[in-house]
Design brief:
alpha/beta; four-stranded mixed sheet; nine-stranded mixed sheet; 11 helices; homodimer; 13 strands
Amino acid sequence: MSVLIVGSTALDSIKTARAEVPRLLGGSASHAAVAASFFGPARLVGVVGEDFPARYLKLYRKHHIDLEGLRIAPGRTFHWSGEYEVNMNNRRTLATELGVFATFSPQLPESYRNSPFVLLANIAPSLQHHVLDQMRRPKYVVADTMDLWLNTALDDLLRLLKRVDGFVLNESEARQLTGEENLARAAKKIHRLGPRHVIVKKGEHGAILSAGGKLFVAPAYPLERVVDPTGAGDSFVGGMMGYLAGARGPVEGNLRRAMIYGSVVASFCCEGFGLTATTRTSRAAVEKRVKELESLTRF
Amino acid sequence: MSVLIVGSTALDSIKTARAEVPRLLGGSASHAAVAASFFGPARLVGVVGEDFPARYLKLYRKHHIDLEGLRIAPGRTFHWSGEYEVNMNNRRTLATELGVFATFSPQLPESYRNSPFVLLANIAPSLQHHVLDQMRRPKYVVADTMDLWLNTALDDLLRLLKRVDGFVLNESEARQLTGEENLARAAKKIHRLGPRHVIVKKGEHGAILSAGGKLFVAPAYPLERVVDPTGAGDSFVGGMMGYLAGARGPVEGNLRRAMIYGSVVASFCCEGFGLTATTRTSRAAVEKRVKELESLTRF
């Protein structure tokens, strides 16, 4: 089954202690769609400007991503630039140029409206709502977010939480949203806001799933060298949704394994700038790391 | 088989956002010995002052801890006082009164010298050396440490690392010792300093074992309420060594499971001030949480 993915489609200029790389393909939807594409068909909803390099359209196509929902609008592509410290958990945004995203209102092609799996990747909650309004009874909807929306669009986000099956956010966002330092308690509070599946991302420490009154602790794949963590969270949720859409049986029974696949795709993402490493890997390489994670956690 | 444990035996005054509790039984050796006692005989090496409450000696005895190596010296017991922020990962030391620890030089009773398992719990590396000097060919030696010794006794610590089988330290100490942000690489560098087993504690995120060229990722038992994390790291390593001493077969085959048991004992430790919750639990309750951790991590 296919996954519809809405989110940002951007050009990222990234600086680390070791290198500086301008205008790479980035954005939450780009990372999530490439991640999902390892497991089945992905449909992209987004907007880019007239400056969007043709080679990046080619890259999407190489991954068989359906681009019918990608609009090329007059103006410039959303551009983000950021810098990482030596400890890559710390980064700061140097510039955000919204470009064509400033006036974006996603219109779904007719062919997208019955997608069974919907990933509302990180983007303004109002746009996530707008996409959901156009869907016909999707089977499973997950929303991702970021601290920006907690600060600037909390009401929209809280309304959104009542419309989704799963909600993904990182540790500090979970604490901010609930006022709870303890993540197990924070997850319980988030359930009360709507979603029956709550996933808290902890970066290099993995992720936690709270579902059906139980927790699942998913490890991160341990990497010896992190080149650029940009998009790792988007890759995680994209890989997870791709795996879920491709798996048989009810979502509940596949969710843990889906998180492991998401974790593994995110590990590849971190090994190169932007999407460089993710786009170079293969389903077989993903399977190999999933097996390694099994042996890394067995006791 | 029995575990010999040397470390601090202290009175801890602990302040959290919710409560303030004076002069509890604490110290690395106290936590580690009680944790080890769930799995078999533990032998304590330490010193306390004449002010040491009789009820704490009784508490040790209730856990069948061999006290032949505990000296009661003229003077006052080592006293530590500290305060936790709402986020319990942050604490600051308010006072450290060494008391009888200032001049402590551990002398092992004859009956201790052939203990097969030796835990050099957190204490000055010179004292850890001194204990090791008195041992007769122990089967398995593990040292724990803290940032203080990296800052003030690095040479002693580096010499110690050549004498131990396993070394336990926390994330930030691993980074400080090696100058490596990445923990997998930090662990590799620590192997080159001596120990064949390197365990990096990550608090609520669990712990990592590097051994035989492979990593093991041990989860922490997720708690909804942390009352006081003081001694959790000591409980972890104490529980681990206790389990190892009680298990059949080579250490290598038991180490992962031993870390899970250590993790579980540490989770009980966090649920009460000082040793309150640890001393109230039972082997059966430990086994129950180990089973829960199995189901929490299965995918």
